[in-house]
């Protein structure tokens, strides 16, 4: 159970907060203090635990989805899409894990037509269920960050999670993939569809605004729909989503640089290095997401005048009251 203070509205007002109010609040507050308070809110809302759970759900979504997409492409007569996905994954994986990934994807493609299609469809459904569960985990973590101790009822929570998985989770994932694997996707598409250098050059320029726009819009939808409260407008929440994207891009670049420079990672984990790097990347992504939620929550809390991100410690308060009673009796 988290101990973050509950974020309310000023005077119980129901006004629609917008970007203008967000800019005014940012100008009125010291940026350093706001960032520190947002991190404190994230920490006392048990943000790291929620991030670990979300990372686990992310990995359970990505791995079966990739295998099912490659395998089912031959059954659905969309082999070229499967080839693009397989080539992209092959270009992203290097070292000892590349052979393992290649064998798994090759087996899923070859056995799809000989009784393996049922397992692949089950894997695709399992991946979608995990995306919906991940959205429910975002609701749980966001509620604690906003100081809300109870989630929505079961049917509303998971029904909303499924709707968000289709309406926001898939575009958010596409935006991340475009940003992370843009060059690899361009090379794979060019190889499969025999595109010229002009198309690859255009994609190299367009992938950044397209990926950032998809990720920003989807993050704003998640920030507005996930918590169990009446959220501000999308333009207000876009500031928290922007913090999330800046942190996510920075952490992804740092992790990528470490994996490229350091040769010890592949040496230690061997064929499992790609799975451990995926786990680490998912964890950093989840931390960045909840830190963005905490920034949006703290920005709204500062606007109401209740800046303290954490509820007072009951033990400290009782000790202080006991000390005051002792001093009064003396």
From TrEMBL:
Keywords: Cell membrane, Membrane, Transmembrane, Transmembrane helix. InterPro entries: Virul_fac_BrkB. Its main location: membrane. The chain crosses the membrane at residues 53-76, 118-138, 158-181, 201-223, 235-258, 278-297. It is a multi-pass membrane protein. Residues 303-314, 321-330 have a biased composition (Basic and acidic residues). It holds the Pfam family Virul_fac_BrkB. Residues 303-330 are annotated as: Disordered. It is found in: Cell membrane. PANTHER family: INNER MEMBRANE PROTEIN YHJD, UPF0761 MEMBRANE PROTEIN YIHY. This is YihY/virulence factor BrkB family protein.
């Amino acid at each position: 159970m988290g101990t973050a203070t509950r974020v309310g509205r000023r005077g119980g007002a129901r006004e629609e907060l917008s970007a203008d109010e967000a800019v005014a609040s940012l100008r009125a507050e010291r940026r350093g203090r706001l960032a520190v308070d947002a991190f404190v809110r994230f920490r006392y809302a048990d943000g790291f635990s929620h991030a670990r759970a979300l990372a686990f759900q992310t990995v359970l979504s990505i791995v079966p989805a990739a295998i099912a997409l490659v395998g089912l492409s031959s059954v659905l007569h969309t082999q070229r899409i499967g080839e693009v996905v397989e080539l992209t994954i092959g270009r992203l994986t290097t070292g000892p894990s590349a052979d393992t990934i290649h064998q798994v994807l090759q087996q899923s493609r070859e056995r799809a037509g000989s009784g393996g299609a049922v397992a692949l469809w089950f894997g695709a459904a399992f991946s979608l269920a995990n995306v919906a569960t991940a959205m429910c985990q975002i609701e749980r973590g966001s509620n604690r960050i906003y100081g809300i101790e109870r989630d929505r009822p079961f049917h509303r929570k998971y029904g909303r999670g499924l709707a968000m998985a289709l309406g926001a989770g898939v575009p958010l994932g596409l935006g991340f993939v475009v940003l992370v694997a843009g060059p690899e996707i361009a090379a794979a598409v060019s190889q499969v569809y025999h595109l010229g250098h002009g198309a690859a050059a255009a994609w190299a320029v367009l992938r950044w605004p397209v990926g950032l726009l998809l990720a920003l819009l989807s993050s704003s939808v998640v920030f507005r729909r996930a918590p169990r409260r009446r959220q501000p407008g999308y333009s207000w929440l876009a500031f928290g989503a922007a913090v999330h994207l800046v942190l996510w891009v920075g952490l992804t670049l740092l992790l990528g640089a470490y994996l490229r420079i350091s040769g010890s990672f592949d040496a230690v984990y061997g064929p499992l290095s790609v799975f451990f790097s995926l786990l680490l990347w998912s964890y950093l992504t989840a931390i960045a997401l909840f830190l963005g939620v905490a920034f949006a929550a703290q920005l709204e809390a500062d606007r109401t005048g209740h800046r303290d991100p954490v509820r007072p410690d009951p033990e400290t308060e009782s000790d202080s009251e006991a000390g005051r009673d002792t001093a009064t009796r003396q």
